[in-house]
Each structure stands twice: as structure tokens, then as C-alpha cells.
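Dear support,

Our group has been running a series of protein-ligand predictions, and this particular one with NAP is the one our PI (initials K.S.) wants archived with full inputs and outputs. We had some confusion internally about which version of the output was final, so please treat the block below as the authoritative record. The input we submitted was:
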Amino acid sequence: MSTSVTVIGLGPMGRAMGGAYLDAGYRVTVWNRTASRADELVARGAVRAATVEEALAANEVVVLSLTGYAAMYAVLEPAAAALEGRVLVNLSSDTPENTRAGAVWAARHGARHLTGGVQTPPSGIGSPEFDTFYSGPRDLFERYEDVLKVLTGTDYRGEDPGLAALYYQLQMDLFWTTLTAWLHMLALADANGIKPSEITPYAAGTLGGMGQFLDFYTPRIEAGRHSGDVERISMAVASLDHVVHTTRDSGVDPALPAAVLETFRRGAAEGYEEDSLTRLVEVFGGGAAA
Ligand SMILES: NC(=O)c1ccc[n+]([C@@H]2O[C@H](COP(=O)([O-])OP(=O)(O)OC[C@H]3O[C@@H](n4cnc5c(N)ncnc54)[C@H](OP(=O)(O)O)[C@@H]3O)[C@@H](O)[C@H]2O)c1
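Confirmed final output from the archive:
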């Protein structure tokens, strides 16, 4: 098994990845557009490649940690002749469609491609309790799983190269909206003289309890059951309307809760007033994917 890797892309994530490989005793070659970002890893023993070609030639396994796939083309296209025989572990975020196209592009240049979606910030790199979604050829994933496990735990989703990106984007859909809701809550609290440290324990309690809601509603959603026996969209409209007014009265931008209220109202206008809020899955355009 390979105990040497190349890491291309040394943002906060790539630097953490290079560090995790060094900690695990790997020989690590690094390249980054802004060369100075490699300094710390080089001081710890990594080899700085002078060119992308040199970085690709150094190792069979090449970990890519770039902003997105456009950056991958920008970096690798001019060095495409050096891709033959490489295994690209692409941990850059992008859409499922773009990752599928990326895998085809890599194959055209004689490289094999694993898509990855890392579910931790840099602080979790090197920790097996966090997971990265992977997809692409199963044999490739299994062959290099030990190398991947240096970074995080692994969660293989299937052969379709877009799957890891899809699962990752699904998680990001939830993550960014939830985090932003908390930031909005802090702004509303602040406008009323309440400090983040005073309100955040309540936020943590609410988020911690979300699992129970998810467990309760998931089988009902899969069964297409949206009866309003626990809560109804009409109640949710009234409740969120109070939030929007409280926000406005406090001089805080109400755009975020107002946008959510708009979707609740759309559900009511489509005739689902008496149904559970879970009906919104359909209002948003999803079916019962059960
Ligand atoms: N940070 C997180 O907490 C986190 C968590 C999970 C997943 N991710 C994902 O992991 C990936 C890397 O994250 P990051 O925070 O390290 O990202 P980042 O700060 O955006 O840095 C990524 C790297 O991309 C390079 N890059 C961007 N555009 C380029 C171009 N046109 N040509 C050449 N190089 C280019 C940057 O080079 P320069 O140094 O020269 O600018 C940098 O090395 C992203 O896809 C991100 O969505 C991040």
C-alpha cells in the first residue's frame, strides 16, 4: 500500500490534509498556486514540487483540495500529459454534474477519479470520528481506503462519481441554512440586548432536540402521510408571522424568516393548511422518494 501522496491545493483543508499525512508517516509532496502556503508543511518535512507536473509525477495518489472543479481544470489542464496512471482523490466541492464531468475528463487523460465530500472543517482532519463521502469505482475506493482513512472515516456511496457530491451538497443544504438561522437569531437577540453566550445554550438545546423531530417525521414522510394531527401549516404560518414581526419591530432584517414564511404561505395557498408542515417536501417539488 502506498505510503506517499501528493496534495495539490493548500487552503486550510489541504494544509490540514498534508499535515495528517505527515503525522501518519507518509512521504508528502505538495503544490499550491500561492507557493508560500506550503512553507509550514515543507518545514515539517513535505517536499515542495516546483511545478504541477513534478507534483503529479511524484506519486500515484494525488489528493486535490481546491475551491471547486474550475480550479482543478485551471491547475491540471496545462499539465494534463502528466495525469496518465494517477489516482485523483478529488476532495474539492462541486455539483454532482460537475464531478461527473470531472471524472470523465480525468479518464480521458488516463487518470482514475474518486469524488470526495469532506464533512468536517480542518480541525477534524486526521480524526476517524468524522466522515468523508466517497463515490466512484468501488475497486479504486477499496484499494486506497487505507490512504483515505488517514484523513477521516470513509462513507462509500456508490459507483456514480456524482453521488459523493450529491450527499455532500445535501448536507450543505441543511448546514448553511441552519447556521444562518442561528446567526439571524443572534442578531435578533443582540438587538434586544441579549448576548450570544446568553442565547446560544437555548439554540443548542433546540438543535439537539431536532433528531427527535426527524425520527418522528421520516417514516410518515416516506409513507406519504402528512396529516395535521401534531401541527398544521396554518399554525406554522401564524407562529412564523410572529417571528417576522418581532424581527421587524427590533430593527433587524426580516428577509430570512420572511422567505421561510413565504414557503409556509405557499403551502397553505395550495390547499394544505390543515396538513403537517412536512407537506412542504412536495410543495418544494420533491416527491415521496420512498
Ligand atoms: N474549509 C472548510 O471548513 C471545509 C470543510 C469541508 C469541505 N471544504 C471544501 O474543501 C475544499 C477546500 O477547502 P478550503 O477551505 O481549503 O478552500 P479554499 O480556501 O478555497 O482553498 C482551496 C485551494 O484552491 C486553490 N485555488 C482556488 N482557485 C484556484 C485557481 N483558479 N487556480 C489554482 N488554485 C486555485 C487555492 O489556491 P491559493 O492558495 O493560491 O489561493 C487554495 O489552495 C473546498 O471545495 C471546500 O468547499 C471545506
